[in-house]
């Protein structure tokens, strides 16, 4: 059985997908980019602000499923330029307790939706 998770506090899907799917106790989120859900505008002022918006969007989806970043077991980070890794990693890391941080991969890709710099998806378990 799957439950579709949706919240107005994260960007609405722009295609045939949902913000997240809960199956059993496991939540699978779609990738989030730095769209401010209130204005529908991209947040690209700095890589820090962009990454923070991505994480805030993920936080909103987690909250809609009654979870927090403590429930995250796996993250996938896609970045358009590995030179931004240190900055992205610092912002991302501020949302986790390092001793209990999730597994993850970080991959440089040729291009991301809307030509953003970072996209992150997560898997979480209650």
Automatic annotation (TrEMBL):
MF terms in GO: deaminase activity
GO CC annotations on file: cytosol
Domain of life: Bacteria
Gene3D superfamilies: RutC-like
Alphabetical list of CDD domains matching this protein: YjgF_YER057c_UK114_family
InterPro entries xrefs: RidA (IPR006056), RutC-like_sf (IPR035959), YjgF/YER057c/UK114 (IPR006175)
Family: Belongs to the RutC family.
Protein name as annotated: 2-iminobutanoate/2-iminopropanoate deaminase
Organism for this UniProt entry: Algibacter pectinivorans
């Amino acid at each position: 059985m799957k439950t579709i998770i949706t919240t107005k506090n994260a960007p609405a899907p722009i295609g045939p997908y949902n913000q997240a799917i809960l199956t059993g106790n496991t939540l699978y989120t779609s990738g989030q980019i730095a769209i401010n859900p209130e204005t529908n505008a991209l947040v690209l002022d700095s890589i820090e602000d962009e990454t923070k918006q991505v994480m805030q969007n993920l936080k909103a989806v987690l909250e809609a499923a009654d979870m927090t970043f403590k429930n995250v077991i796996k993250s996938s980070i896609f970045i358009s330029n590995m030179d931004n890794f240190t900055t992205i990693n610092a912002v991302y890391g501020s949302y986790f307790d390092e001793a209990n941080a999730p597994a993850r991969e970080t991959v440089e890709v040729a291009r991301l939706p809307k030509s953003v710099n970072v996209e992150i998806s997560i898997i979480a378990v209650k």
